Amino acid sequence: MVKLKRILNYNMRLVNKVILYIYRRISRLTLNEVLFICAVFLIPFFIWFWSNREAKLSVNSSNPVIVWWTHGFPSTSETITCEDNLKCDVYSDNNLGNAYNVEAYLFYASNINFDDLPLPRKARDVIWGLYHEESPRNVRELLHEKTLSLFNFSATFSRYSDIPFPLQYLDSLSDITSKEYYIPTTEKNGLLKDISPVLYLQTDCETATERDAYVRELMKYINIDSYGDCLKNKELPQKFKDDYLNKLNDNEFLHYIARYKFVLALENGVCEDYVTEKFWRAIKVGSVPIYFGSPSIKDWFPNDKSAILIQDHPTPANMSEHIKKLLKNDHLYDEHLTHKTKESITNKRLIEEFRMRPYQTDALNVANKFECLVCRKIHEKKTRLQEHIVNKSHYDCPKPVSALTLTVNPSNDWVYLWHQAEKDAEEIFKRVYS
């Protein structure tokens, strides 16, 4: 019995030594060693996972096949089940085009390579679908109808798209009326001894709308606190400086910008229904947006006076006079904030759009909706595909207009690029249908 206890004690000490050794060794691992160990174990797992996933999909070859030709988004492969129990197999590997009878190719525009398309284009038999949520600066060729007409169906921010999502940056209607960040006008007035009445926060300094040129001129007439990389005249607090672009929707940051009476919200491109977080963030926190961008922005105002449009005060001097007028009259200023002060939204179009299309605030939900539309069209096969093509209304971005002059500036580099893209679009169209 005593001998057995000695053996057990010895074994326990040995185990403890081994555990201690392992612990000490792990604690001395370098980052590279940790990454290497993770890679050794995780890479085989992911290879097995994805190959097994594709194997599961390939079992049911009776479903129509849809392939995302572009990489990166949405990066899923699955059998989708849509309304009326319609099913399609969706793949994110464009190499499968040779192995399957593909009936539709989908393209995420930001990752499209017009030198690498699934040619020849079988327009009578194969659907091409375009998903695009970004401004023209990403893919200039899509500014022109020749390129757009390569596609049968679209999912874009335009209300005229097949799967529209003009409210992609509005998280909820309650964000509009909530007073979580709202600061009453009398309190904002007291803050003016420390901050300017107008906020400008921008990092992208070379844009088609020449917004920096506008703000630079406006600065001659009224004080503006400019953060970010463009026209910076004020530093952000230290807690926001590191990676501030990823903190724009943090509670603390929203409270910080809510102190300003006005926010300059100038888009980097002018397109119908292209309305970004620049507008909706100001609405959310209870600052008044001074807006330039979508020509139809009034259709999405919560109330009649929810923003001030640059085109209504066509020069920086005119705009500064209007701002100063509102600074002197709290009643006039508050007319722009009835979505906060009265917690009301009178725009029925906005309410109905958000209610009818709840998918549009989530990119993956939009992609799924788009896949199901295309899946249904494959199953129907009632009309010839070339009778339904994407046109300019699905992505309507005219020649770049300057916020400063409200006209096309011929010396703007983006105007030159617009014309160059028009030539490129012609060449792409000819190459696809040659």
UniProtKB/TrEMBL annotation:
Domain Fucosyltransferase C-terminal stretches = 198-384
Q: Give start and end of each Fucosyltransferase N-terminal domain.
A: 62-166
| Pathway, per record | Protein modification; protein glycosylation
* Record's bilayer topology term: Single-pass type II membrane protein
Keyword flag Isomerase = no
Q: What is its EC number?
A: 2.4.1.-
Coarse class of the primary localization is Golgi
Task: Provide an example Pfam family for this protein.
Answer: Glyco_tran_10_N
Keywords per UniProt: Glycoprotein, Glycosyltransferase, Golgi apparatus, Membrane, Signal-anchor, Transferase, Transmembrane, Transmembrane helix
Q: Which residues cross the membrane?
A: 34-51
Location relative to the cell = Golgi apparatus, Golgi stack membrane
The record's family statement is:
Belongs to the glycosyltransferase 10 family.
The name this protein carries in UniProt is Fucosyltransferase
Species name: Bicyclus anynana (Squinting bush brown butterfly)
Tell me the classification of the organism that encodes this protein. Answer: Eukaryota, Metazoa, Ecdysozoa, Arthropoda, Hexapoda
Instruction: Identify the coding gene.
Output: LOC112053763
